[in-house]
Amino acid sequence: MKYVDEFRDGALVRDWAERIARTMTRPWTLMEICGGQTHAIVKYGIDALLPAGLELVHGPGCPVCVTPESSIESALELAARPNVTFCSFGDMLRVPGARQNLLMVKADGGDVRTVYSPLDALEIAAANPQREVVFFAIGFETTSQANAMAVFEARRRGIENFSMLVSQVRVPPAIEAILSDPDNRIQGFLAAGHVCAVMGTAEYPELAARFRTPIVVTGFEPLDLMQGIHACVAQLESGRHEVEIQYRRAVRPEGNRAAQAMLAQVFETIDKDWRGLGVIPSSGLGLRPAFARFDAEKRFDLKPQAPATDRGCRAGDVLRGLLKPSQCPAFGQQCTPEHPLGATMVSSEGACAAYYRFRRHELTGST
């Protein structure tokens, strides 16, 4: 298929790997910020093609993985209420809380539904005016504009039994938090192409300059990743720290102005708690006062939930790039997709899930 096969051409990918090797003169550590990129790297063995001394570590770019436990507990509380229909993307249903997950609530009789869009949840609310319909609005900038549209439409259509449990996060503040960490070892970033397709690159040059760290906006296919890695290494080798766009077929510097306008109308920037990273200033999105009646936390007067006790999960270190999934003692043993200790093993974009799916045989010796 054109535009897919071209970016998965093995000969071209190996050629770019050789270019990277010719460009490198010293070791470097890069982070891909997006969980989709992580899965592609592990699935296609991109890291195995790279020269010795070039390390890729995996960042907090999985929306399911960074949703804090307090939000998971709030979701479980809402989903168990008899008058609530709780709607969510499928990945969230198996994320463990302190005692159960959303699938268990459903098994106990809760009205928990998987939807593919917040607009699907809005239609459920329109068709069932006697019930409170709550959508679990998680994710980065890529999902936020659809969530904003759903709330905007709910107000326009007068659908008052619809609300959102909002756990929206933003990428640039997370990059800043990682680079500000005293334990940081990241020297260059591969930024998420789909996030920048929405938001553009306006927030990145200041970060690149302040931390002297190149940021290359990269796509998700093997050739995209190799080209992004090469661009990042070339900058590091020449002492540059700029923002580049590898993913030009989808990303413009200004982003999608219409989507940004919708976001600005519905959401405002807030401080936000991230699983594994803690509270990051200005890293979240909350509903503006004009849309506060669609905020499930306010509508149901939800109280802050205490995090669960330690279950031996090292997902926080994985999300910060301090640990590879296979370096966690529980990986593939106490922690599997069937019995996960944390969200990184559950999500389709989680780093632990990627390692388990594509590398568990070589890492654990299992069959």
End-to-end distance:
33 Å
Work out the helicity level.
Answer: 40-55%
Q: How would you describe the oligomerization state of the chains in this entry?
A: single chain
Structural class: alpha/beta
> What's the alpha carbon Rg, rounded to whole Å?
21 Å
Number of discrete helical segments: 16
Q: How would you sum up the global shape?
A: globular
- Low-confidence parts lasting 5 or more residues at pLDDT below 50? none
Sketch the topology as an H/E string, one letter per element. HEHHEHHEHEHEHEHEHHEHEHEEHHH
**What is the overall pLDDT average?**
93
Secondary structure: number of strands: 11
Question: Which range does the strand content fall in?
Answer: 15-25%
Instruction: Let me know the largest β-sheet.
Output: 6 strands, mixed
Strand line-up of the largest beta sheet: 4-3-5-6-11-10
What is shown here, in short?
With about 375 residues, the chain is α/β, with parallel strands linked by helices. The protein has helices spanning about 10-25, 35-45, 45-50, 65, 70-80, 100-105, 120-125, 140-155, 170-180, 195-200, 205-210, 220-240, 255-265, 295-300, 315-320, 350-365, and strands at about 30, 55-60, 85-90, 110-115, 130-140, 160-170, 190, 215-220, 245, 265-275, 280-285.
